[in-house]
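> @MW can you paste both from yesterday?
MW: sure, first one:
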Amino acid sequence: MKRLPAAYSLFFLLLSVLLAPCNAAAAGQSPRKVLLLTSYHQGDRWNDSVVQGVREALEALDSVSLSIENLDMRRYTNQDHSRMTKEYIRAKYQDRPQDLVLVSDDPALNFLLTVREDLFPNTPVVFCGINNFTPKRIQGQHSITGINEALSLEATLELALKLFPKTTRIMAVVSDTEASGRANLQEYRAAAARMKGRVQFDELLNITYKEAPDILNRLPKDSLVLRLINLLKPEGGYVSIQDSIRTLSAHAPVPVFTLWSFDLGDGALGGYVSSGQDQGRTAGNLAIRILDGQEAEQIPVIMDSPNVPMFDYRVMERFGLKDSALPKGSVVLNQQISLWKEYRLWLLGIALFCGLQTFLILTLLTRGKRLHAANAALEESEHFTRSLLETIPIPVFYKGRDGLYQGFNKAFLNFYGKSRDGLIGKSVFDITAPDMADAHHVHDMELIENPGTKIYPYKVKTSQGDLRDVIFHKASLTDEHGSVTGLIGAILDVTELKLMERRNQVLADIIKRSKDFIGVADIRKKAFFVNPAGQALLGLDDDDAVAKTKIMWP
């Protein structure tokens, strides 16, 4: 085997040494461990939307291990459930340190604060979905930050009264059985106090899903419903968000407003809503900053809750609410967008394409007709040219730049005794002796390189083997740009003419040498030719003297 030079070996050795630690670190790097504690259960819309937002954000990390524990504290509110949950979390994570803990909503944060000292004393924490957060909630805690969830309750009430100005009563579905419900109830009462005198504010406090249909069916037409909590189960706990909003909207003859985006699609009209997905996504982004090395204390709690006016178009139609009545920037779900609005750009593009295609087709048809007429005229012209060429009694031919025959008339074929197929694509070397062909080829190439005409005499052997005296007339053929495309030629047979010239020359010599008087006179008997013997007899010196002398014949 051929050995590498020493310099190359040293280079690869150094390269492997430099890269080895990096590769080893990359290969041995364990994923960063993140624990997400949610307040509710899998299948709860808010809970699931928060998880979705967290997952979307953490996808930006190269390597992360996300563990999710759903504490299910909406359906189970008793002390035994809380105690067993603490024991379960302690048993599972006491010997499994986490790089960061995420908590969603108030019950999960309250739970974490009770077990953090034992399980996660030095682990940074990020919270989200905490209703009406105040710094007092995390007083005494370190390495903790998060996102406030400020419900737009009063803004939604104002919006509801603006959209339905004939309203006289607002019925709020509220509860005081757990912390988040009590917080929402307290905020509702504070808003009602500030808006006192405008409408009557009532509470549907702690109603169960079995009581709800009868109560809702009896609501007056000039009232509105505001859902601030789920309906209760008779045995304790809450029914799901989906079942709650479906029950409320199915039995209430009036619009149901909400403060959460997950209620839309199951009967709620809308409101200034909070989004669990946005809360989770924002919390995930904060987690990434901390995992990348930023201290949690350096990140202030995000107090602005990004709530937006959002509505369900199908419920809007039910209550006769128009798009124009909604606040600017409203998000409308389930809207039956017209084909034109949804695919306007596509339709315009298709229309433009079809119009252009139609224009091109018409243009092609028009040009086709013109081309057809031009072709017909060209064919007629070509037919005339061919007919004219065939009637010419002298041989005519034309060649390409390569010197090969491209066409000829019948006289040319007869002259050489060849068939049309036997000459197309052939050269002068195929029909003429080599020495003669060389001379013709030289003349041809001169016309190809230097456009013009050539006239020269030559001898040609015919198909009968006769050697004929001919004169070649050749000219260059050019296109519209002046470039030479070939040449055209004609062959004038002057054999008989030359024979006559020779015969005339012999006769002239005989007359000139004769000793007798020989003269030629015109019809008026005036001589215009007298041979030398006659000139001597008459005393004339030359032909000029004959022309000047009037000789009258007897």
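MW: second:
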Amino acid sequence: MLSGVGITQASILDLKITEIMYNPKPDAGQLEEDLEFIEFKNTGLTEINLKSLVLSNAVLYIFDKDEILAPGGMLVLVSDSNVFHERYPLVKVAGQYTNKFSNKGEKLYVKAGSDTLIEFEYKDDLPWSSLADGNGYSLVSVEINPIGEPSKPEYWRNGVRLNGTPGEESETALEFPDVWINELLSHTDLPEIDAIELFNNSLIPADISNWFLSDSKSNPYKFQFPSGTIINSGEYLVVDETDFNNLGSGFRFNRSGDEVFLYSGDNQNNLTGFSTGWAFEGQYNGVTFGIHVSSDGDKHFLPQEENTLGFINSNPIIGPLVISEINYNPSNLDYEYLTVENITDTIVDCFHSEHPDLGWKISGVGFDFPANTKLKANELVFVTAANPTDFRLKYNINNTVQVFQYSGKMSNNGEELSVWRFDRMDTTETGETFMPKVLMDGVHYNDALPWDVLADGHGNSLKRISKTSFGDEVENWEGTPLFISNEITKTIPHLEFSLFYEKKIIYSSGVEGILTVFDFNGKVCKKEQIRAINGTFTLNESDGVYFYLFESEEGMKSGKLVKK
């Protein structure tokens, strides 16, 4: 039983949030915050009594009396019931919450006593729907009876009907041509000009008459395609500033980074329910961003090796610095760190060319390379949360290898790490200097499958397989025990660890040293002096995951993670 409520855990978990109007579009004389609402649904087969449940954080509402929600039933809470009923006169309101939803996104909780039933954060930035952020549409769950994770943008889409459908099932998503923004040129020094490429992935021609392009979700109407604009199946349409910024009356992109949006529209200048777009960072003059599809089907908008506007995209730019190893949640025996490598055959200056005191950056850990840092051709460096001296001693790293310390901490639940350099420094009309950062490499690692779960506190680190291939690709990473993956650690080439049978390990080497066996949590199970000559070592502990570390008398190490 959950504390504070007289219902079974199975039934209360059938309560889902299925619609949120967090940034409404008001009519004349109305305030947007007075038209907010949130919709709950019982997706189960038994009724639920919501008494004692609390909706909190962004807004606050306490169900302080019996509120029975039948199977399939919906319930609506609002910010102002009087103004709400001006727009939705027939919708039953269950209650009025205090506070207002943030238009920038924030966390929501639904709690039953000390138990958290629902916890998620809606957001207003891409890939979340831009139509739900002040353009008259609500966020609705993709599934009628959702079972996914509401903190993920794929749980949500914008609704079909302007102003939403509080208290009703959301209408089936409208069918639109499968058209997307495929490539974009955002930093152009004359005579080049900004350009946008659309691609029709549909099997039939796509009619995008009266659709809109914009760099602003608060003003989607900056450029409208003329009537009769057709993109044939599998073909591209390129527009540039002579189209969307004719005589300077439209828009052009900020070279420090910007956004781009494509909206469906009609001949009455109304939005009709479809939007897509990208947010992007700074880039060098003449370099385009383009879509790259990873093995999981996700699209990424990345700098391209070549400008291919009007043609199939080229490969993404990788380097010159890349992240090659990540130890984000070390066992009790190890330090958190990542490795960065120069994958070129030349020296790389890790600072702004005109300002050597401004070092390149690694986001996710809060690290800037020290002034005047250089990486030799193909050099690998360590960046760690530990004291560099302690780190060197632990892993026997000599002073020829650079070790840096960052101030932050990698998330044990997964996050994005990325390496940045700088474009040229400029001055605004008001005299302020700015210096766009340019992406070199990035990876959004995770602690769940298909990423190696043994890297989540159980002795493995994540090691990149190909340093010249796309970094944010799970198939380009493997879990490897630290003592093997660390290129600086000396290994004994002929010491082999392999399963002999269920309870034994066989060695084939001729050196003496110390064998230490660690369990899944980093605790030492056994430590013995052995001579590894075709002998066996019997482990009497229970079945599980163990790390075997052999250290010779000369200080060389070799290890293997073994599952019994």
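> thanks! Confidence is low (pLDDT under 50) at residues 1-9, 483-509, 532-536.
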